[in-house]
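W.,

You were right to be curious about this one. When I first looked at the sequence I had no strong expectations either way, so I just let the prediction run and decided to look at it fresh. Below is the sequence, 138 residues in total, followed by the output.
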Amino acid sequence: MRSGSYAMLSDSDIEMIKEVRKEVYENRTTTIQLVVEKDDVKDPITGFPVAQEPDVYACEAIVTEPSALTRIQNTLVESGISLEKGDVFFDVDYEELPDPDIKPQSIRYRGMEYEIISAPHKGLGELNRIEFLGRRRS
């Protein structure tokens, strides 16, 4: 590449990336549940708050437990969050979500509940997934 020239992704590059991503995801996903808490409502007679059941959405995700290579002095470089033992990454494609702007508070996976610590939207060429960082709840 010559000095002063810029490489950009073309529409065909983005389409190729999408196809490759589908192949990468194939046979690597597992089912998780996204838990979206709902605000309490007031009882119409007493006026006291009544807890609502959360919305739970099953979806497929690539699940990754951070290895020693992911850690640099125990800090996740991307967002400055310290990783703890038991933290897990859940990579969820937009196509798996009821809405790409979903804001779950936790994820259920393998009989455990993980609080969502961060949820950056990611993609190459265009946003296409969310990478949730989950921390095991005690």
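Here's what jumped out at me. Residues 114 and 136 are 4 Å apart (CA to CA). And, maybe more interesting for your project: The longest helix spans residues 11-25.

Coffee later to discuss?

I.
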